[in-house]
Amino acid sequence: MTEGAANLSAGLPAATASNDATPIWPIRAVLFDLDGTLVDTAPDLGAALNVLRRRAGLAELPIERIRPWVSHGGLGLIRAGFGLQDNAPEAQPLLDELLSEYAAAICVHTRLFPGMDAVLDQLEARQLPWGIVTNKITHFATPLLDQLGLTQRAGCVVCGDTLPVGKPDPAPVRLACERLGIAPAACVLVGDDRRDIEAARAAGAWSLAVTYGYGVETDPPASWAAHNLLHTPTDLLHWLDRAP
Q1: What is the DSSP code (8-state) at residue 13?
Q2: Where are the beta strands (DSSP E) in 58-185?
Q3: What is the band of 242 on the pLDDT scale with cuts at 50, 70, 90?
Q4: pTM assigned to the model
Q5: Which of 36, 39, 112, 134 has the largest count of CB atoms under 10 Å?
Q6: What is the pLDDT of residue 112?
Q7: How far apart are CA 157 and CA 117, in angstroms?
Q8: Looking only at Cα atoms, what is the longest distance across the chain?
Q9: Are strands 111-112 and 187-191 parallel, antiparallel or unpaired?
């Protein structure tokens, strides 16, 4: 066992631990957030933002500057790239332009996070269904998942416009569980944003917060009250393998 896995195991809660409901063991399904958890979309989102900056006569921003803003959505990227507030008159036209550029090159540099493909292989080998619960709208999520070869592998995909509400409302998590045919109490949601954890816990599911995602420097995952932290994708397998 690696040092990271040992540290993870040492901090695991009891199998019956819960705050908002009563998650149960064993886990029968795994749900993933998309951007910043399952897939690293920052390079292509950053590239789209830099197209806009070049058109405006501005220098490109390094991806390290852009990455923390990805979890804040398109308007967050506009704030990062142009220093505009969400309600600024210029923000919406820039957002429309950003989304158009992103849609045209949605999966050029986007990849699964390192180790995640092996995690999905292992889940499938164990016959543990997995799905995706994202606030990304269907118009962007579907072609991205198609190009990554994940559409047919995922047991369900719930997007930001599948329901009238998105995370942190628990409804998308409950819908994903319903589509998998698994009770929320026997599911775990893995996410890189506080909203993921709030949605999971409100749905009565297990929650795991990743520390490798976007925006974790400004909102530390340790403060989200997740059932545990994952420092790498493969930590999920260590968590699933622990003794009840």
Answers
A1: P
A2: 111-112, 130-133, 157-158
A3: confident
A4: 0.89
A5: 134
A6: 98
A7: 17
A8: 58
A9: unpaired
**Three-class SS state of 216:** coil
* CA–CA separation, 9 and 35 (whole Å): 26
- Dihedral over Cα of 150, 152, 155, 159: its sign: positive
Query: How far, in whole angstroms, is CA 73 from its chain's centroid?
Result: 12
Burial of 151 (0-12, 13-18, 19+ CB in 10 A): middle
Rounded Cα distance, 234 and 84, in Å: 38
DSSP string, 32-53: E-TBTTTEE-HHHHHHHHHHHH
User: Cβ(44)–Cβ(143) under 8 Å?
Assistant: no
Q: Which residues are annotated as catalytic?
A: 33, 35
Q: Name, in order, each residue with C-beta under 8 angstroms of 139's C-beta and a sequence gap of 6 or more.
A: 103
For residue 132 the two structure tokens come to 């995706």
Q: Which two tokens stand for residue 8?
A: 């993870």
3-class DSSP state for residue 60?
Answer: coil
| pLDDT tens sequence across 47-94 | 999 999 999 999 999 999 999 999 888 999 999 999 998 888 999 999
